[in-house]
From TrEMBL, chain A:
Belongs to the CcmC/CycZ/HelC family. This is Unannotated protein. Keywords: Cytochrome c-type biogenesis, Membrane, Transmembrane, Transmembrane helix. Its main location: membrane. One of its GO terms (biological process) is cytochrome complex assembly. GO terms for molecular function: heme binding; heme transmembrane transporter activity. The keyword Transmembrane applies. It is found in: Membrane. Residues 23-182 form the Cytochrome c assembly protein domain. GO terms for cellular component: plasma membrane. It is a multi-pass membrane protein. The chain crosses the membrane at residues 22-44, 64-82, 89-112, 118-142, 154-171, 199-220.
Automatic annotation (TrEMBL), chain B:
One of its GO terms (molecular function) is heme transmembrane transporter activity. Required for the export of heme to the periplasm for the biogenesis of c-type cytochromes. One of its GO terms (cellular component) is plasma membrane. Keywords: Cell inner membrane, Cell membrane, Cytochrome c-type biogenesis, Membrane, Transmembrane, Transmembrane helix, Transport. This is Heme exporter protein B. The chain crosses the membrane at residues 21-41, 53-72, 93-121, 127-150, 162-182, 194-216. The keyword Secreted does not apply. It holds the Pfam family CcmB. The keyword Cell inner membrane applies. Belongs to the CcmB/CycW/HelB family. It is a multi-pass membrane protein. GO terms for biological process: cytochrome c biosynthetic process; cytochrome complex assembly.
Amino acid sequence: MIPQTPTEVTGPASTGSRATRVLGLLALVALGVLVLFGLILSPADASQGESVRIMYVHVPSATVAYIGCFLTTLGSIIYLWRKSRWWELVAYAGAEVATLFTVITLVTGMLWGRPTWGVYWVWDARLTSTAMLLLLLLGYLAVRRLPADYEVRAKRAAIVGLLLVPNVMIVRKSVDWWRTLHQKPTLLSNGLDSKIEGLMLFSLFTGFIAISLVFGWLIVHRFRLAWLEEQVESEGLDIAIAERRAEALIGEVAP
Amino acid sequence: MIRDALLVAGKDLRLEWRSRVALNQVAPFALLVLVLFAFALDPDRGLLEKATPGLYWVAVLFSGLLALQRSFSIESADGNRDALRLSGLDPAGIFLGKVMAVGLQLLALEVLLGIGVAVLYTTPITGWILLLVTAMVATVAIAAAGTLYGVVAAGLRVRETLLPLLLLPVLAPVLIGSTRAFEAALGGTPSEGWPWVGLMGVIAVLYIVAGVFGFGPLMEES
């Protein structure tokens, strides 16, 4: 992604292109491989049982959700700095896709928690800060989707987006402290270490690749869609003005 | 910048003093929240006293939201936003002035609520130094973040619903920090509270810096 000044921006003409069709195909194949390894070939975990398979989606989703947040803050900074509409839309696409993957992270986490801990929700540091991340992202999207002019929406959303990553970090830190004062964070600390069995590690690896490809595909398409929407909005106004003019002219000819 | 800040703060506080909205509506609302908590939690079982730090700060946040909404609704009437922009005042000064005015109102609210919990919840007050420093730092953080997000939401039809959605998640660390610090002070272990004061100090500085630099661009647009 090369930063572009508004004058030299040339946007996409449609949401599909040969490159993204290949990307989409790769994502589908990777998802198929993930299903094969995650659900069939990899063994059940000794302590977690079958529910360990949720992790092959859960952990990569959480990772790409964070990447989406960084894209939003990066795009917001560049938009505020260079007034690049391209980057503003990258920020928007990043936030929307990050929201989706945060929801997937939370839902898969709860589905994993029910058989493992016996409850859908505990006030664990990671769960709590992920829930707060979702709320912060929803706040950004609420501003970005304001019923107002593009400039107003974009600038205000960029300020919120600029503060997104700092806020996530502060919330994370405070929630960590808040919980560790009461209990040690033991629940989710058995993540990646060398004790993971080979096939399970490979399944997790496949999960990272598949989810990253889906993430990339979604970001590109969301960006293109947002770009085309902005085009339609500005062109739609021109067309509407032209139509009203034409109507007025007809009205004058035949009263 | 400082002179402009004092001018804006003076203007806002004079407006509040003359309109009496903070006094006649926000302060009674804060007390009402305290009474509602007593209805929600059985007052006879000592729950209120145990939960005092959390209830106190939730009450501060909710009534503080009203004060913040008010701070921006007085600017939206009669094209005041444009007038403020044309006045030649430094945007950073306007931001700091708004923060000062909101902060002073919050401090007044906090004193009132403090008396309220001491009397209504019969909470014994200990650890004065930590309580006062926590209140000061938390107030600066709430006022700075609130003013910054307040201007993001200002001048829009959806202002009333947007500001809480934006602001409350951001202030969650302040709520956690101030509540823990108060618990430490009231529980007689002040040393546990000071790291939280530090965290809130970081938040306060972050939002003041973001506001000083971000207020100009936000004021520029229509």
